Amino acid sequence: MSAKIFVARLLGLDVFDPQGDRLGRMRDAVVVDRGPLLPPMAVGIVIEVPGKKRVFVPMTRVTSMDPHQIITTGLINLRRFERRGAELMVAGDVFDRRVLLKDGSGEAIVEDIGFEQQRNGDWLVTELYVRRNAGRTAFGRTRGEHLLIDWDAARWAGHQEPQGATSFVAAHEDMKPADLADVIHEMTPKRRIEIAEELQDERLADVLQELPEDDQVEILSHLDIERAADVLEEMDPDDAADLLHELPDSQQELLLELMEPEDAQDVRRLMEYDENTAGSVMTPVPVIMPPEATVAEALANIRQQEFTPAMASLVIVARPPLETPTGRYLGVVHFQKLLRYPPPEPLGNLLDKDLEPVSDQMPLGVVTRELATYNLTCIPVVNENHRVVGAVTVDDVLDHILPEDWRITDVPEVGDETSRVHRKEASR
């Protein structure tokens, strides 16, 4: 193993067992603060294993690290990682932290830290890679000198303060909402609120939809009431309705009144349905077009970014008005069929009339069976007058048939302690 490593160079690297099988990807390193007189100790790394679960691997089980890969003994604990006591996440807590340089030259920002293995096998933080601020350029950008200094050549400014929320959001701007939600869920409540306040409304809405209900309520309740309404507007109506159901009636009504009338109307309609019915989980704004519309117009419509792949898999054809509840339902045209016909062809000539829509009062279990029986990713929903009121997609169904804590429940594994070698022996 190399004598010294820098954490930023390792983030995102693949982690392998001794046989060369990939275990996951490194997402962070964990250090323990031992006070002002002793250097922090590196105690392990956090890797993301299949299933988007983050687990802890002690440094004693890391056999090799270099800029290309990380190799472990293969034995890992598959319980979800939770930090303890004085543990700090290097990327999450230390990077971008402000320090005071003891030589009197001012403040600096930590951009990387170096570990070095001691003779007794311990890994200690021995160096900091910092950027010393030196004012701003004419274009407003921060400029500064980069320095590699000993760990004790700087003093933490506000030692217990984590990485600034602004820096955290900027560092994770390319992360998918579901992955960012997973990271935020593991934070303390105070830290979750700080990050939520820094996120843009649309980004926060996407992340909220991926969080457990308790986290959603906690974050929304701490936002300014007008901003909370803005975030709800950015959420999918069915997710916004589910979240509002978890709030007191008085708060529900206040938020709905602050929302744009059109957005609030969609959410109110969903909240009127009994729980676990098609109407309660449907998307109230699917792709709906008249029979006179052409293939070219339909393809242009489903290209819109707001439609998920599941929702764009079919076009619902109905008589005007086309806003839900529409005129009478006529049928659907599947996306693949659109690709087989010339652009001028009217949708009315391509209808799949055999696909029966589901009732808005139909139990969710029956809707699930309909989707599975006919291999559908989307199915129209109609009211008692056979007018389209929405559509249920496969992702709407999955969110409700999985366990309530599926977002935070560990993926089933062979055991808490497992390895490729142990699995081989167990199969003999």
UniProtKB/TrEMBL annotation:
One Pfam family recorded for the sequence: CBS
UniProt key word DNA-binding: no
InterPro entries documented for this protein: CBS_dom, CBS_dom_sf, Mg_transptr_MgtE_intracell_dom, MgtE_N_sf, MgtE_transporter, SH3_actinomycetes
Record carries keyword Hydrolase: no
Entry's Gene Ontology cellular component terms: membrane
CBS domain boundaries: 282-350, 351-411
Record keywords: CBS domain
Domain of life: Bacteria
SUPFAM superfamilies linked: CBS-domain pair, MgtE N-terminal domain-like
CDD domains linked to this entry: CBS_pair_Mg_transporter
SMART domains: MgtE_N (SM00924)
Molecular function via GO: magnesium ion transmembrane transporter activity
Protein name (database record): Mg/Co/Ni transporter MgtE (Contains CBS domain)
Organism: Micrococcus terreus
